[in-house]
Amino acid sequence: MADNSKIEWTDATWNPVRGCVKLSPGCKHCYAETFAERFRGVLGHPYTQGFDLRLIPGKLAEPLRWKASKRVFVNSMSDLFLDGVPEAYIETVARVMALADWHTFQVLTKRSERMQQLLSTRLAFAARLPNVWWGVSVEDRRYGLPRVEHLRAAPARTRFLSVEPLLEDLGRVDFTGVDGVIVGGESGAKARPLDPAWVRSLREQCDAAGVAFFFKQWGGVRKATTGRVLDGRTYDALPRSTVAPVLDEARRLRLLEEAEALAAPWLTPPALALGA
């Protein structure tokens, strides 16, 4: 877990799952895959298996070790709702988020139909947690906008969109039930272009709908140079976080024990094999 994330809209990342499978145009230049595959075959490295799907139960209890309240991006190096991740494991991740209620957890997926289905059934206990945001990635009209409909149909308390990389004009978007929108361009050597008009359209629609708008970056080959200023200012609005007070040490350690007990069944070889 990275406790000082460079991602502008979060404080930390937590990866109880590693690896993923490309699904849509937004995945074309996946930063996580590029990073992970650099270390394929490097013995002893966390990504010695590259970007192959793996469950990492040793990471499950980590949020309970953090004393200070943080915004935590869940699975920056994977997708919690990937088909190969067992429902029982997803539930365990959600129960850890419920225990660590002094953090805000930001769950982002492209598998919106599976998320909708589980939040309506097995994860119903977690759908309305005040410290969890449920979000979907949106890159274009064909693949991205249907995910917004799935998210809206889910019984989530806090909903957000990560519109990154934004690959085209999305047109008119129904932001009903959406609490926040994060917009950004693609970065890296093969970054696809971002038209400022596409960004302005979303900003204006969010403003009209009363939805928090966060502009993450213009991207490109040198994203540090292109920055994140839009029309002379930065946009940093995010959904409100509702978290519990940070616990005293004794209570936190008791909850840590509970989280470790939740993780224990997944630490055996048969459980690990499910995510191999």
SSE inventory with pairings:
Elements: E1 12-14, E2 17-18, H1 31-37, E3 54-55, E4 71-74, H2 87-99, E5 104-109, H3 112-119, H4 124-127, E6 132-137, H5 144-153, E7 159-163, E8 180-184, H6 196-209, E9 212-217, H7 223-226, H8 249-263, H9 269-273
Parallel strand pairs: 1-4, 4-5, 5-6, 6-7, 7-8, 8-9
Antiparallel strand pairs: 2-3
Helix pairs in contact: 2-8, 3-5
Question: What features would you describe in this structure?
Answer:
This protein has 276 residues and is an alpha/beta fold. The chain has one domain (12-273). It contains 9 helices and 9 strands. It has helices at 31-37, 87-99, 112-119, 124-127, 144-153, 196-209, 223-226, 249-263, 269-273; strands at 12-14, 17-18, 54-55, 71-74, 104-109, 132-137, 159-163, 180-184, 212-217. It has a 7-stranded parallel β-sheet with strand order 1-4-5-6-7-8-9. A two-stranded antiparallel sheet has the order 2-3. Helix 5 (144-153) links the parallel strand 6 and strand 7. The longest helix is centred in the last third of the chain and has 15 residues, at 249-263. It is globular. The model is unreliable at 271-276 (pLDDT under 50). This is Phage Gp37/Gp68 family protein. InterPro entries: DUF5131.
Order of helices and strands: EEHEEHEHHEHEEHEHHH
Instruction: Tell me the number of strands.
Output: 9
Number of helices: 9
Structural class: alpha/beta
Shape: globular
Rounded mean pLDDT score:
94
Strand order of the largest sheet: 1-4-5-6-7-8-9
Low-confidence stretches: 271-276
* Radius of gyration, whole Å: 18 Å
> Cα distance, first to last residue?
20 Å
Domain module count: 1
